[in-house]
Amino acid sequence: MKNIIVGQSGGPTSVINSSVAGVYKKAKELGVEHVYGMVHGIEGFLEENFIDLDDYLSDNNNYELLKRTPAAFLGSCRYKLPKVEGNEDVYEKIFSILEKHEIDAFFYTGGNDSMDTIKMLSDYAKEHNKTQVFMGVPKTIDNDLPITDHCPGYGSCAKYIATSLREVIRDNASFSKNRLTVCIVEIMGRNAGWLTAAAALAKDETGEGVDAIYLPEVDFELDKFIENIKKLSETKSSIVVAVSEGIHDKDGKFICELSDGDRSVDAFGHKQLSGTATTLANIIAKETGFKTRAIEFSTLQRAASHIASLTDINEAEMVGEKAVEEANNGNTGMMVTLVRKSSNPYSCETGIYDIHDIANVEKKVPIEWIDLDNNQMKQEFIDYAKPLIIGELQPIYKDGIPQHLLRK
Amino acid sequence: MKNIIVGQSGGPTSVINSSVAGVYKKAKELGVEHVYGMVHGIEGFLEENFIDLDDYLSDNNNYELLKRTPAAFLGSCRYKLPKVEGNEDVYEKIFSILEKHEIDAFFYTGGNDSMDTIKMLSDYAKEHNKTQVFMGVPKTIDNDLPITDHCPGYGSCAKYIATSLREVIRDNASFSKNRLTVCIVEIMGRNAGWLTAAAALAKDETGEGVDAIYLPEVDFELDKFIENIKKLSETKSSIVVAVSEGIHDKDGKFICELSDGDRSVDAFGHKQLSGTATTLANIIAKETGFKTRAIEFSTLQRAASHIASLTDINEAEMVGEKAVEEANNGNTGMMVTLVRKSSNPYSCETGIYDIHDIANVEKKVPIEWIDLDNNQMKQEFIDYAKPLIIGELQPIYKDGIPQHLLRK
Fold it and tell me: Which residue from A200, A162, A208, A139 is spatially nearest to A370, judged by alpha carbons?
């Protein structure tokens, strides 16, 4: 491979840049001349908005900083490639840019929507006898890509959630039973509850943890929820509940829609959700008279690189390296996967898998991992998730604040 | 001093437990027999709900864990002592409990309201020739206690705010100018803007930081705010603004009240504020059509011990030790203060000051430290705040999550 290019797409994570670092590292080991980065994904690519990663990453200090930098260093996008039919000009433009810059391989880090881009480009290349290869590099805090055991980005987000919830539990328990506060914490995850399930990891040795967990995999019943809070209040002096932003009733109506009707829709047609915790906090206050508090982890959960999981950072780098290695072997139209060999002791390797089985498919939390009677996660989930949050990569502090690497 | 007692009051911080640790440490050095902790402050004290800190802190591992545990290890309260007149029974009860347990000194960590408790008890003791001494130990994320240069709890909260804002800025900048997002971050601080001002510390070497900062010390003008966002949008592809929960218009009407009328009131008669960021995000979306996002740091900012400032932890411990030392010297009705000797290099000592000049007085951010034209903080503030966020105390991790010390 003479030159290669890497891009970032979709919602950012704490470790998406470690995958870019991995792509760069392996490519340089293999003697690739230029490792380009597309600025703002395929959107920037179409404008030939590239940077040469040598300008940043040939300096090892910058390489280390990049691994500690959250969000998309290269810039991300939410551009969905149109169908080939009727849009041949877009595809011709993409391949002409690749040819012009002698780019032999194209790497894209992203989730379900981004893997669709790899699928369409690799299919087009095969059909038109193009030699360039296209590889998907998994990245999503949502952990909802199929085939792969888990997704880079998930572990760090889960670690943030468990750490912050434990702190919220401490804070909420500061006052006595006569000032009982019901704290409802909203966690990202539209259709898949992997992140909200990570709330279960906050439990400590004493058994003190989140009092109830509500995932979008299970239809939400408001009456039962209120009943559960009342029951908890009989014995607890502090109640902390974790809810997914995507919880909905049996008719599919989102709980946040109970309070306000219109919601904007993103480029992929997904409804923009928020306000689930606030909606529920208001309902509980009204129904029980308890003091309530709503907390939304919002983008903090996906950007908190200062408490990223070292396991996650290492795996994000690993999938970047693997993508380059496999592209160099001539593979295309594949996504790198993480293949768990063992949970205890934890061991995980990389593999590759046909992108057609991955793009646009969502993997949800298995219902049998949910303790429906107690609104908790079962041990199977704990065993699955716990290894993914282990380890820390010490931030590089300056003036008391973690440093990041920025594009010039 | 034969026995002493320490209590925690008011809203918790990341480092309030370090002050309890300091009280314990110094008392043991001085040969105090029992160091009691009141469970839930004066409220628990009145029920003789004590623990003996030896049961926890004679083990050095627990001492280290306590310094890393956020919120009130002993439990807090928001109990306001009634006036002596007509409530003599309450005061008699307090002193009879002290006498029964041979407690010679009473230490209370807290903010303005809690210092009032120390004032009333020490005044009562003097008037009734009681020998017990009462010392205030400063604690408040709000940094609004007078006389003291700053308050333990502030530095860690400021460090969390600066760190998280830098991460939010990275996240918000992931997308390109054609997906400009205006992110409005709400920070605690009802009347004093010290915490919101700490947003200025997020600025990095490249000058990239928060685009505007709005403190409650300055009347908020909605028209000018909208105008500023529009102006910023001309050159920026991402806008992040920090606002205090307590910003209000020239008539004193809180901005969050623009969207919803009724607000509950806490035990001290303070209005419960929230939703300022959401209110402004909705207004901006309507007025400009930009995508907006509201983030509330909520209790996360005061509980994030995993990113606490080592300077703050050390000073919190120091004020606890000083309180015991001065009580042992026979002082009463005083609060420990932090006295800055130099900002660069930073050096700070402890002092004591008459509680009458402190209780119920609020210290605000000096107007001359605010760059009113640019909605930013001036260098004077940066020089003041920067030393307070320096240093980290590595959490003690287990299964990937920081450990805390809990009461049995």
Answer: A200
Which residues of chain A neighbour B205 with C-beta distances below 8 Å? 398
- B95's CB contacts (< 8 A; 6+ apart) are B124, B125, B128, B130, B132
ipTM of the shown complex: 0.95
Look up residue A35 and give its two tokens: 């490792």
| Per-residue pLDDT reduced to its tens digit, B37-61 | 999 999 999 999 999 999 999 999 9
User: What is the distance in angstroms between the Cα of B299 and the nearest Cα belonging to chain A?
Assistant: 7
User: Distance, in angstroms, between A330 CA and closest chain B CA?
Assistant: 31
- The verdict on whether A142 is a catalytic residue reads yes
Contacting residues of A for B397, CB less than 8 Å apart: 392
Residues of A in contact with B62 (CB under 8 A): none
In terms of CA atoms, which chain A residue is nearest residue B402? A163
Q: Is B189 helix (H, G, I), strand (E, B) or coil?
A: coil
Query: Could you tell me the pTM of the whole model?
Result: 0.96
The residue annotated as part of the active site, out of A113, A142, A149, A312, is A142
Tokens of B24: 């314990």
A vs B, Cβ pairs < 8 A, gives 175
pLDDT tens digits for range B187-201:
999 999 999 999 999
How far is residue B6 from each of residues A36, A175, B20, B36, B55, measured CA to CA in Å? 61, 16, 7, 6, 15
Burial class (CB in 10 A: 0-12, 13-18, 19+), A331: middle
Enter the DSSP assignment of B81. P
Between CA B242 and CA B256 the distance in angstroms is 14
Q: Which domains does chain B have, with CATH numbers?
A: 3-140+307-359 (3.40.50.450), 154-303 (3.40.50.460)
